[in-house]
Specification:
Number of helices: 2
Helix content: 25-40%
Distance between the termini: 5 Å
Mean pLDDT: 96
CATH topology: Alpha-Beta Plaits
Structural class: alpha+beta
Largest sheet: 4 strands, antiparallel
Low-confidence stretches: none
Number of strands: 4
CATH architecture: 2-Layer Sandwich
Shape: elongated
CATH superfamily: ACT-like. Chain A, domain 2
Strand order of the largest sheet: 2-3-1-4
Order of helices and strands: EHEEHE
Strand content: over 45%
C-alpha cells in the first residue's frame, strides 16, 4: 500500500456542522499529521488546514465526507511524495 502527503483545505460557513466535522476528523486521526484552524470573524467563516499522510483513497474519502456536510467546503491538494507503507 502507498501513502501520500496531502493537505485538505476546509471552509466552514455553518457552525452547526462543527461537531460532526470534528467527529469525522477524529475518526481519521491516525492519518492526520497536523491541523491549523483560523476563525475569520469579520466574514463569519472558519478556515481549517489539515495535513495528512494516507492512501489516496482515504484522503479522497475524508475530503468527500467533509465536503458533504452542510455549509462546509473541502478540497484536497496532493504532493508528489509517495511512500510504500
Amino acid at each position: 500500500m502507498e501513502t501520500r502527503v496531502a493537505i485538505i483545505g476546509i471552509i466552514v460557513e455553518n457552525e452547526d456542522s462543527v461537531e460532526e466535522l470534528n467527529g469525522i476528523l477524529h475518526t481519521y486521526g491516525s492519518y492526520i499529521i497536523g491541523r491549523m484552524g483560523i476563525p475569520y470573524r469579520a466574514r463569519g467563516v472558519n478556515i481549517i488546514a489539515v495535513a495528512v499522510d494516507a492512501p489516496q483513497e482515504v484522503i479522497s474519502a475524508l475530503s468527500g465526507k467533509l465536503g458533504r456536510l452542510n455549509g462546509v467546503s473541502a478540497k484536497a491538494a496532493y504532493s508528489n511524495v509517495i511512500t510504500k507503507a
